[in-house]
Amino acid sequence: MVFAQHPHQDLFNMPGSAVRRIPEGIDPLSAQFAGMFGVALHVHLQRAVRPGEVVAVSGLGLVGSFAAYLARLSAGKLIVIDPNPFRREKAAWIGADAVVGPEDASEAIKSLSDNRGVDMFIETSGAPPALQMAIGNTAALGTIAVAAWYGTRAVQLSLSPEFHLRSLKIISIHVFNLDEGNRWNPERKFAVSLDFLKNIDVTQLITHRIPFGDAPSAYRQLDEHADRTLAVLLEHGQ
């Protein structure tokens, strides 16, 4: 059994070098999340959370949830942010110090950072206002790691005065842009993702299982009922 990252379709060809063998003892259900976990892992490979730092994560989809989980391992305080009450409820497993909507994020950050702002703000929501929130709530010399993908949407930001006065750093996260002498090649990142996923009950993240032949309904679910949707699995027949 192997893991492949490829657009959803019922038949495709890939070179053997592009797939990853799923080791014995790894639940295939957990392995299905390796791609999303790999994006979250990449956030921390590009800018690791230092012990005791105050960290905020905006967006509690899969990438944001996994990024917050990894941040929790080192962060002194962790604030997770999402406008969706359902996703905030589903995020209880992460163990954040505050789980809030965007309207309450600034106050939670001030309270948990002694009014300094966060040391690291991880933006995974893809909502342009979340990036503006990050600029306004990150401490001096802090880092904003943008794992979100904004697509073709224009993102208009006000960079004055916080961005300049605090000497903030904004970094983009992309899973193919890390070059450390091939130490973190795709095989290693996949293996590390699986090691972490073994310790996560991924069933708590799955809200829908939909037969592959009914894939259009999965996309309608995401488009029309995002308020009750987290992980959607397309299942092929056995």
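Above is the first protein from milestone M3; the second protein from the same milestone is given next.
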Amino acid sequence: MTRKVIARKSRLHGMGLFACRDLKAGERLIEYKGKRYGKGEYPEMGDDGITKFLGLSDGTGIDGTGWAALANHSCDPNCELQEERDARGKLHAWLFALRDIKAGEELLWDYRLDIRSRKVAYTDWACACGSDNCRGTMADPKRIRGAKPAKR
């Protein structure tokens, strides 16, 4: 089977993930892997201020060290993370294509970070995706205190 993704330099930020071949909408692409953390446990933030920590719906999390952690943010994503349980009930997160993706296209998902402070959301977690729909932050606008509804 042909490899689905490859890592290389991104125009958005550092390294990114790119499609090796055409991908179909709904296709499961790559698992988000890394060190697992229990409920209420979090990794220490590095000096660079970058985190690859992914909080899961059961309160646990993954500090991403695998290839999926290289996928960059966009306010106009072509991928999304979905959770699935294995046979033992353990949650896993997988990157799925939201739409058909052409070979060579960068794989992007909306981080929707859990940032409550408006100031922090727009300074420390500012977005530079460049999409027409860019909201200016990688934070989830529904979680920011004092956030104004998005314009339609």
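Note on the second protein: The mean pLDDT is 87.
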